[in-house]
Every structure is written in structure tokens, then in C-alpha cells.
Hints:
- The complex is a heterotetramer, with two copies of chain A and two copies of chain C.
- Chain A is 36% helix and 20% strand.
- Chain A is built from twelve helices and 14 strands.
- In chain A, the strands form four sheets. In chain A, strands 9-11-10-13-14 form a five-stranded mixed sheet, sandwiched between helices.
- The longest helix of chain A has 15 residues, at 6-20.
- Chain C is 41% helix and 12% strand.
- Chain C has a six-stranded parallel sheet with strand order 1-7-8-4-3-2, sandwiched between helices. In chain C, strands 5-6 form a two-stranded antiparallel ribbon.
- In chain C, α9 links the parallel β7 (220-225) and β8 (250-255).
- The chains are: A alpha/beta, C alpha/beta.
- At the C-D interface, β1, α7 and α8 of C face β1, α7 and α8 of D.
- The structure holds thiamine diphosphate (2 copies) and magnesium ion (MG) (2 copies).
- One thiamine diphosphate sits between chains C (94, 133-135, 162-166, 193, 195-197, 262) and B (29, 58, 82, 86, 89).
Amino acid sequence: MANLTLVQAINLALVQEMERDDRIILLGEDVGLNGGVFRVTEGLHKRFGGHRVVDSPLAESGIIGTAIGLAMAGLRPIPEIQFEGFLGPAYDQLCSHAARMRTRTRGAFTVPMTVRVPVGGGIHAPELHSDSPEAIYAHQPGMKVVMPASPYDAKGLLLSAIRDPDPVIFFEPKRIYRAFREEVPEDEYTIPIGKARVVCEGDELTMISWGASVIQCMQAIEKSGRSVELIDLRTIYPFDMEAVAASVSKTGRAVVVHEAPRTCGFGAEIATRIMEECFLSLEAPVQRVTGFDTIMPYYKLELEYLPETERIGLAVEETLAY
Amino acid sequence: MANLTLVQAINLALVQEMERDDRIILLGEDVGLNGGVFRVTEGLHKRFGGHRVVDSPLAESGIIGTAIGLAMAGLRPIPEIQFEGFLGPAYDQLCSHAARMRTRTRGAFTVPMTVRVPVGGGIHAPELHSDSPEAIYAHQPGMKVVMPASPYDAKGLLLSAIRDPDPVIFFEPKRIYRAFREEVPEDEYTIPIGKARVVCEGDELTMISWGASVIQCMQAIEKSGRSVELIDLRTIYPFDMEAVAASVSKTGRAVVVHEAPRTCGFGAEIATRIMEECFLSLEAPVQRVTGFDTIMPYYKLELEYLPETERIGLAVEETLAY
Amino acid sequence: MPIKTAFKTEIEHVSILDEHGQFDAKLAEGLIPDDDLLALYRHMTVCRHLDEVAFKLQRSGRMGTYPQNMGQEATSLAAAYVLEKTDWLVPCYRENAGLFWRGVPMEYVLLHWMGDERGNAIPRELFCTPLAIPIGTQMLHAAGLAWAAKYRGEKQIACTFFGDGATSEGDFHEAMNFAANLDLPVVFLCQNNFWAISVPGKIQCSAPTLAQRGLAYGMHCVQCDGNDLFAVAKVVKEAAARAREQSRPTFIEAVTYRLGDHTTADDARRYRDQAEVDLWKARDPLIRLRGLLKEKKLWNDSKEAELLEFAEREVAGAVQRAEGIEAPATTEVFDHTFATLDPQILKQRETRRTSSLGQQSGRSASHAPAGGSH
Amino acid sequence: MPIKTAFKTEIEHVSILDEHGQFDAKLAEGLIPDDDLLALYRHMTVCRHLDEVAFKLQRSGRMGTYPQNMGQEATSLAAAYVLEKTDWLVPCYRENAGLFWRGVPMEYVLLHWMGDERGNAIPRELFCTPLAIPIGTQMLHAAGLAWAAKYRGEKQIACTFFGDGATSEGDFHEAMNFAANLDLPVVFLCQNNFWAISVPGKIQCSAPTLAQRGLAYGMHCVQCDGNDLFAVAKVVKEAAARAREQSRPTFIEAVTYRLGDHTTADDARRYRDQAEVDLWKARDPLIRLRGLLKEKKLWNDSKEAELLEFAEREVAGAVQRAEGIEAPATTEVFDHTFATLDPQILKQRETRRTSSLGQQSGRSASHAPAGGSH
Ligand SMILES: Cc1ncc(C[n+]2csc(CCOP(=O)(O)OP(=O)(O)O)c2C)c(N)n1
Ligand SMILES: Cc1ncc(C[n+]2csc(CCOP(=O)(O)OP(=O)(O)O)c2C)c(N)n1
Ligand SMILES: [Mg+2]
Ligand SMILES: [Mg+2]
């Protein structure tokens, strides 16, 4: 048991799983000697060698496309995309191939690959280093999408993702890469994909979030002084509707919080599902506290864009007052 | 006034607008001599010459990327992507550049471009020729998304799209390219982006759809014998919430129909907005009749996947019975 | 010297059995024994006949869009012939001849074009990936497959096929670049048939040769007559050795021509001259091979007649098997999305519905009066 | 002959003023008059100083991540110098010298790295596009900009800048291919500095030269010493003429080196040897230009001292202007999404809220008891 940051927890998970399973290959830009631009793969090149931790050409479609081939051949590639803003060039390989291979071939070929991608804003980064495209990939059938909000979860979810027989995009919220530490067992443990975590219980309102926003939610709840149940989704697809419905059936009110733009963000899906499944329990319309329907601004204005404690708090008050 | 198919209406709009505005260049795969694989650009190469109707290399990112450059220079490019399944390679240029250029440069550079893309299933086409990615682009701030459901609308909306100072993805539902004809005025007219069309009035339930599904909706309504108000969205982003809210406030019930997978489809956004804005009028949860959360199947099973009349009809009955 | 030469190179063109029947016996030495030559000729003839039958199936509504391979049979066949049975074939959609030679049952390809995914469930022991619809994308998979073999220390390589149009896609570039810089054992076999649907080759590549695409990566590259079974066999054999022994990729431009329309949805008369087609009809790989066989006294008209009958039987059998398969169950829409379906897909599968009220009680959802899970 | 030569070529390397001070006066003839040489030297010195100041700004928290240009100044500067003022410059992010020469105010680039989009609002009459963050993507825009000029019958061309890493991206390939096959007047100027963050050049291109990337497209290609103002000026001038007169693109590999870290977020000691850096320090474009100027008796130590003072003033002024600008209004988050904001964005702008209840009554939304539009 050690007190680790999220970066360290992921690094530990990678080390342990690579020791256990030599089908795992890491590939991506700067993942080798440099240990990745966030140092998530620090030390792995030295430990496992250049054939298992591979600095690739600067080409995201190439990284994902070759990883698909590696996976089709039975290996367990873990490609890294340096920032979520650079997933774009790989969109086609992810959605036209990785997600479709099992269906296309009736299972003759599968793509057991885990795509690691730092995600989200709040770190004063340049353009296209602060976006949140999780809904894009949640809309693609055949793709699983995971986003941990704590070091403990990161390790357990990453192991599940790596062992999953299907492609998983593993989003790592960079704002909390080193924001806090948590006890993370040395021992192997997994957290199942598709299961949410109740961060704190409450009976007045259900708040649903994921990734770095969970921290903002916790702060907002504390400030509010109200009895709010906070659900950290952990998996975006397939998401844990059972946990959400159970909570909202109890509280009758819900607020969803995410960084991505509002329109067609994953909040829309959750809000709709809540309406569908908890219609008669709902005392107020589900509220969305999200990024605006505008481009994620350069960093001078990024905190005006991101759903911060104050905006979340207001939504809680308004929903409770409804 | 002529009785035209949707293909002919678009062709007419292109001819007339190209006559009017020599800043327009068409580019894409097979758009020249061949007139496009759906013959939408038939005759244009001959009429306007190879410098205005350009057969491009087989490279979707290249088509959109160079079109962005053309637009930044003040021209009005109209790139064609041959099928929506091949938008993937252009995703990055669309979302990282076309949609962001105005915001990025505070208006110094803009991208007045209209991307024409056949969309949707139901024509017995091969893999990746039958998808519906409209929600993906609706989630991208800075991008407008249009989808006509009739020849008349196609002409009027296309003119608006071409004249719009910002990038527009103009989805053409291939299932109704030639399915029926409609009176289309020779004269110039525009249909504003962002305004829905009430296809038929009703007071028991509001049905919201777009593209080829509108036809299935009409059939389902007719069969149902109920008083259903059908709204053809026409524009996906920015969508006409005013029209939707006005109708649902009246009917108290709503069903959204689209071909794309359910999770994070545009139906989720509409359902959420209805809940947000019509909460106290809602008599039943908004229902979604959509594609499944699975890969669009090869054509033997495509009609099992698409929201057909029967499924729509059942949703109407259930919603009314709620 | 302030101006000096930084790089210098040449690219070879290989031809062994040309359109005039000229045969370079020396270059052909040891390439294809006569017995195999007969088998290969028979195989091509069957493939050619399949094209005719498939065309009719499409026209009569028994099959969807189909891309004829006519005229290009030699390329993929020669490659499949010289490769090991465990080398990966990573095709596009004009490689029937190579795939069938490897052992892919003909009905698989028919099923694919009949809109049935079962046509893609190619047994893994055949080491063939399914036909690729999005152009230019599959070469990256070939690079990954080859990489996996190298990682495991196996002597397996990958050979991937694509057209001239495909070389315009960014993924082509990335695949070539990964293979060259990471030393992956891949053979990139471009079938330059001069057209990408209606777009002429010069719009895809205005360089004097397509082969020189490979120079960008410091890759060995070579051009050959793609309608010449011997030439293709020779260059692929050398490329395979280079891959297997040195783990280095090769780029091959096989010059060929599609004699038919792009697909059954196309009408090539809209954009190309009959004169050009006629020119290439004379360069047909079947004609020149038949000529050689006759010259070698291995072939005659009665054998040809027998062969045509054989081809008819073969193809008819495949069509029968493809059409005879039971219709896919609706559950197939759901069952392969993931190894284990999530609750939401399971519910959609069970109810065949996406509307929440419709999902409450199986297939014929009753009009339940109450909402969700409360 | 069954094996014949299909293609044959050579690529030149151009050097005029080398790292040992060797100067080929003949090749340099008419390229850069002495007055301009002085101005260019001054300009590079100012740019170099900006790098030092920017580094400190970042370290003291006054600026975000910043990529130093140090060591690469000659390349973009020489290009901007020989191009027409109305030719497009389509940069990546190591072209400060070229952009400032064209007239982009220094504070624009500072603002960009200070997280302020106003740094990208470059006046259109400067014909410069903003710094490009996603690697390898801007070359397509250059192709489009050049295409537009050609379409209009103008003699304007586009010159785009990018690194060795960028040439691995699919978009690079597509841009080169569009330009070559559609005859677009583009100059592709690759600054090969041997590193893409920590990844060495051989992983991006294992061919003997990067220049030969251009062969894939039948494009004229050439390699030059990128730290040699004269060599770059010469090859860009020729490329510009080729573009302007024949509407043909050129691919230039300018061999250079970044003397600093990739950005202020990087620590290059993790992956490269100091010996390599030292080697390249001796090849610094400023050093050799200063040497030439001194040899020509155009420069001395007191002028150098004066220049350093001038550079300090210039940069300090720019920093002051960049930091002195008023903070951007929150409305800026919304105002440039579209030419005309849609109702939804307007409401978000007005209320600064996305939750529907919060959007009902302006900024400090009251806790309205009722729902939406009923
Ligand atoms: C990414 C993508 N873009 C467009 C298409 C539509 N399309 C199908 S085949 C084809 C032409 C392919 O030309 P080529 O690569 O030369 O192969 P050929 O058909 O000539 O064998 C096009 C444009 C596609 N399938 N995939
Ligand atoms: C599409 C994309 N992928 C990854 C990155 C992250 N990144 C920023 S700079 C860089 C290296 C660029 O190398 P090169 O093109 O050689 O330019 P240099 O920095 O050496 O001038 C990388 C990988 C990015 N900005 N964009
Ligand atoms: Mg072709
Ligand atoms: Mg570099």
C-alpha cells in the first residue's frame, strides 16, 4: 500500500500488468526514454526494453491502426495518444475499425486494445490540450469508454481495461494527474467496467459526474451544506444506469456535471435515461452543468468555461428549490 | 416550378448558386466527369469547367483541409465526402480546424464552407455506407449541421448553407435521394438554418425527426390514426427548440426518431431539452425510437436496425397510453 | 562543394511474360513449375467466371453492389502463390484470386457482397483479414500484424493489397512510414489499375511511377507488370525474403487494369475511352498465360472447354452455398458488439426496442402505465 | 529488356555559408545585399533574445508553455525574406523570425503562448496564418490558400513550415499529394531539427534524407543547410519561382537543430546527449552570420553591444504590450463561435450558465420555482 498520485497509480498498474502478461506492448509518441510527456510511462522503457515500450512515429492514425493489427494478431497493445485533442486523426481507425472488427467478422477477429489518453482542461495548456471528447466515443457502438477520478480507481480500472477483450478508451483526467494522492494497494485488484462509485451518500439530490469534475462536485457539495449523493460514473460506456436510477428514485432530483460542451454531451444521455427510468420520481428537471456550446478557450478564460464549484452550487440550489 | 427528386433539387441549387457566385468551387472524389457516385453534381463539370468542379485525390482529410484553406482565402468551397462513413478521416480537420478557425483567430480567419455528405441507411449498400453521424458534429461547437427531408427543403437549405459565413455539414439522406418528387421552384429561395418545419399538426403527441426517417414517421402517424404533430428538424445544430417546446407544451408527449445509435444520439439532446423546458407539461417520458447501440449491420439486417414504421407506431401508442 | 548530391536512386521495372507472349525463361527460372502453372491458370479462369456470375446476380437483385476483379487476377494470385500459407493476406476487394488460392471459400466473398457479415468470419488459420471497405485503411493493420509476428520472433510476414487511389490516403503514408522506420516485415502491393472509380491515376499520383512512393521511406521499391504472373511472383518472392530475413518492408507497384466497371453501381463509359479498355483487353493476364501454356504444349481447346465447365460448376456451387445459408437471425444485430453484452444492449436485444416504455416487457411491449425503475 | 529502369533521380544538397565560415560568393551572388544582411542579423538576434525572455516569463509563471526557436532562426527568416509580402506564410510554431520579419507584432506570439486568442488575430494584410498546434495539419491549409490564388489567377503563393515529426502525419502526405497532382503553388519547407520532442528523426523517417519525401509525389525536392541563411534563401527563391511561374510545388528539407528544449515543459537532457547539442551550438546560424559580417567589416563588438541593448528594448516593449492588454472579457468565450450566435449560445452568454433553471433570469439566476416554457 502506497500513497500515490494518479500518474503513479497508472504507472504501477502498467508495470504489474506488463510483468504478468508479455502480450502487452506500449506504443506512442515519447512513451519510451522520455516516459511520456506526463511521465506516466516513466521507467518502463528501461525496465521492459524498446521492443515493449515503443516510441512511434508522430502519427495518431498510425498508432491506433497498427495497434489494431497487433491486437488482431492476439497481442494486447496499449497505445497512448498524447492529448485528447490529437485523437482526431485516429477517429477513423477507432470508429471504422477498432469498434467494428468483432461485429464485422462475427468474432473471428477482435481488438483487445486499451487506448490511454490524457483528457480535460484546467492545466493552463495550449489549444487542443484541454478538451473532453468522451461523448464522441460513447456514441460509437463497440467502444468502451472509461475515466477514473482517483488514483485507486485508475489502477483498478486500467487493469480491467487491459484485460477486456474489446477496445477501451481510457481517459486520464490530466487536471488530477498529480493533484492529490491516495492509498493504492500494491496487490492486484480490478474495478469492473460499467460500475459507478457512490462518492458520498445523500437524499436530497443526486449529482452525477466523472473525471476531474468529481473534485469540483465534492467541493460544491461541501459548500452547499445539502445532502447530495455524488455518483462518480467511472465508466462512460457502458454506464451504470442502475446506480443512477437507484439514487434518483430516492432523491427525485439530479444534476449532471461534465467539462464537455452541453449539446450532445454525455449529460444529455444521462438526463434522458433518468427521465425515461425515473419519470414519476422526478421532482425537478435534471440539470446539466457543463462546458458551454463554444470552443474550449485558450487558458486565460478556461476557468470561465469549465463547470466550477460556483456554477455547480447554483444548480444544486435551483434544483432543490424547484 | 418543376417536379424534382432530392438529387435534382440539390443539383439545381448548385447550378444556380454557382452561376451567381464564382467564389464557389466543388471538390471531391468523382464529382467531375462522373457527376458524383449519386449523380448529384451531374453536368456541372461540363457547365462550369474543371477548375470549378474538381476531382480530388482519394483523401478525405485532404479534401476538407484544402477546402479550409480555400475558404480562409475567401472562396466558398463545397467539398463532397462520398459517404458519411468516410467522414472519419476528415474528422480532425473538421473539428480541430474548420469549426475552430473563427474562434481561434477572433474572426480574422473564417471557414465559409459547405460539406455535402450522403447519409443514412436503407439502400442495401456495403459496410460504412449507411451510418448517421450527425450527433458527432452537433457536439462540436462552431459547426452547423443540416439535414433536409424533402427536395423543396434541400434546395432552400443548401442555398442558406452555402451563403452561411461558417462551416456547415449538409447531410443528404440517400434513402430519399430519388424516393419521391416534389414541386421545387426555379426561383431562388432560402430556408433559414435553425428553423424546423411542422410537417403535420396534431395535439396528442409531438414527433420529432429529420432526414429520411421523416418519411417513416409520416407513415407511422397515418397508420396510428392519432393526432400527432410531426416536426422535421431540418437543422440539427442549431436546432429549433422553440418549435419543439411550443409543440410539446401543447401535446405533453413526445417521441424522437432517428437512425443513429441511441446512446448520445441527437435524440438524447432533444429529449433532455424537452425535459428542461417543458417539465411541467410532460405527461409521459420522451421516447426515443432509434438505431440500436450496435454497429449498423450489413444490409441483410439493416431494416431490423433502422427505426421502422412499426417500432415508431408502438412508441406512439405506449406514450399515449402512459 | 556547396552543391552536392544528397541522394541518388533508380527503380526497376520487371516483366517476364509480356503481352506479346515474349517470355524471359531465364528470369522465370525456378519461379513456377509447370504443374502449378496449370493450376494457377485454372484458378484464374474460375475467378473470372465468378465475376460474370456475380455481375448477373447483382443485376437480378440477388446480390448488392459487387466489384469485378476482371483483368487483375494475376496480381493477388501470384502473391498468394509465392507466400507461405501462414503469411497474412490483408486485402482490399479486388483480390478474389489470391484469397481463394489461400483457401477462403468462394461463398465467403459472395456473402460479403450479399450484405452478410458471415462472409467476413474467415477462419483464423487462413491468415486472411476480411475485405476492407474504407479505402487505404487496412495497410496499417497489416503493419500491426507483421509487427506482432516480429515481436513474437516468428518468421511470419504480412502482404497487403490496395489500389492506386488508396495511396492518396494519409493512412497509406502512415503505414509505409511505420513499416519502414520500425522495420516491419510487410509487403505493400499496390495494384495500379489507373482508375479510382472515375478519377484517373494522375490525380492520385502525378509522379512518373507509383513505385517511387516507396522512396519517401527509404523503402525498397519496384515496379512490375501486374498482369504478368511471373513478374509479380518474382518481385513478391524477393520482397517476402527481404521481409522474412531482414524484417524490411517493400513497396511494389503492379501495373494492371480493371477491365470491368468499378463496381456494378458504376458505368465506366461515362469517364473512360473504349480504346483504352481494348488496349488492356489485349494485355489480359489470362490470354498471355494461356498462350504460354499452349506454347508449352500444356494446353488445348478441349482442356479449355473442360475448364469452363469446371468453372461453372465451381461457381454455381459457391452461389448455391451462399444463397442456401439460413437468413441471419435478428439477434445477430446485437450479439457481436462486445464479447459480453452490456445490460443496455441485452435489453435492446430482448425487446427489439429503444424506447424506454417499449423496453419494459419483452418483444410485444404492453402499454405499461408506470415509468422506470421506481 | 525484361528488367529496365522505370525511374532515376538525384537530390541536391545546397550550402553557401557553412559552419566553418566557408562562403561560396558565387552561389550567393545577388541573393542578399549587405544592408539586408545586417538587418537580418539584427532581426535574428532580437528573436534569440525573445526566446530567453520568454523562457523566464514561463518559469516565473507569467506565460504558459513556450517552444523556443533557438538555433532555427535562419530557416523561416530566409524564407520570409525572399518571398513577396503577399505570399502566404503558414507556420507551425518555430517560425518567430519569419513571422516577425513579415510584420507580425511580437506581442501576438507572446499572447498566443499566454493563453490568449487575440494573439492569433493576425491582420489579414500580413498574409500569415496563426501558429498551428495540431502537428502536420496546416500544410493542407497552405495548399488551399495557394489553390485559391491560382483559381483567381493571382501570382500569390504559399509557403508552409513544419518539422521532421510532422512529416509522419497522414495530412502531410495528403497536402503534398494535392499540391503535386493539382499543380498548386506551394513551398513545403520542412525544418528537420532531428527531434520531435524526445523521438529521434530516424523514427520519423529512416530514409537517407528527409528531402526524398518529395519524390513520392514527383515533386521537385532539395536539401539545404537550414542554419545557412544564404542556402535557404536560394532554395526558397527557386521554389517560389517554380510556384509562381509554373504553379508547381517544391519540397525543401532544411537541416537545422533546436538548441533548447522542445518546449518549456520539456527537459531534453532526458533523451539527448550534450555532445550533440554542443556540436550544433557550433553550427549556430547567428555565429556564422556574425563571422561573415565581421569578415566583410560590417560588424564589430560595439555594434553587437548596441544591438543587444536594442534587442532588450524591443523585447521588453513587446512583453509590456502583451502583458498590458486588458484581460479578455468572459463574453469572449462565446462571441466568436459563429458570425451570428444562435439563441442557445446567446442564452449561455447572457446567463453564464448551462443548467436550464439557471438560464431563466440572467447572470444571478433566481431560484425560479417553475420549469421551462409552459
Ligand atoms: C475512405 C474511403 N473513401 C471513399 C471510398 C469510396 N470508394 C470506394 S472504391 C473507391 C476507389 C478506389 O480506388 P483504388 O484504390 O484505385 O482501387 P480500385 O477500385 O481501383 O481497385 C472509392 C473512392 C471508400 N470506400 N473509402
Ligand atoms: C497531432 C499532434 N500530435 C501530437 C502533438 C504533440 N506534439 C507537439 S510538438 C510535437 C513534436 C513535433 O515535432 P516536429 O514536427 O519535428 O517539430 P519540432 O517541435 O521539432 O519543431 C508533438 C508530438 C501535437 N501537437 N499534435
Ligand atoms: Mg485503382
Ligand atoms: Mg523536429
